[in-house]
Specification:
The protein is an alpha+beta fold. The protein is 48% helix and 22% strand. It contains 5 helices and 4 strands; from the N terminus they run ααβββαααβ. α1 (2-8) packs across α2 and α4 runs antiparallel to α5. The termini are far apart. The mean pLDDT is 88.
Length: 129
Amino acid sequence: FNDFIQLCHPLFAADDEAKETPPQKPIYLSMLPHFTVNLSDGTVPRFLMIKAQTQVANKETRKSLIRHMPAVRHNVLMKLSSLSSEDIRSSSQKEALRQEIAEIIRKTLTEYAEYDDVKGFFITSLVTQ
C-alpha cells in the first residue's frame, strides 16, 4: 500500500523520507588553548580570557577546522586583541562578539578549506581583568 501511495503521490514519499532521517547530533570542538589577549585600554593594562567551543555541521568541517586551527586562532586573536573592556561590557555586546567570531571562523575556513559549515561559536567562560 505504501508503494502505491508513493507512486501515486510523490509528495507523501518525500514526507515519509524526511520523517525517517534522524536529526544530526551537534559537533563541538573545544578551542584549545583558551584565548588570552591584552585589551586595548590605553595605559591601563587589562586582559581578556575566553574559553569557547565551535559548533560545526559535519565531520568534514570539524576536520577542516582542526587542520586550519593556526589560521583560525590567528584571526580570532587579532579580533579579540583589538577590543577594549568597553566593547564587551553588556550581554548584547558579548552576543555580537560571539556572532562575529563565528563569522571570522567561517571566512577563514572558506579561504583555506573545502568545508566551512560553522554553526556557531559559544563562549563557555569569559574573564576580564
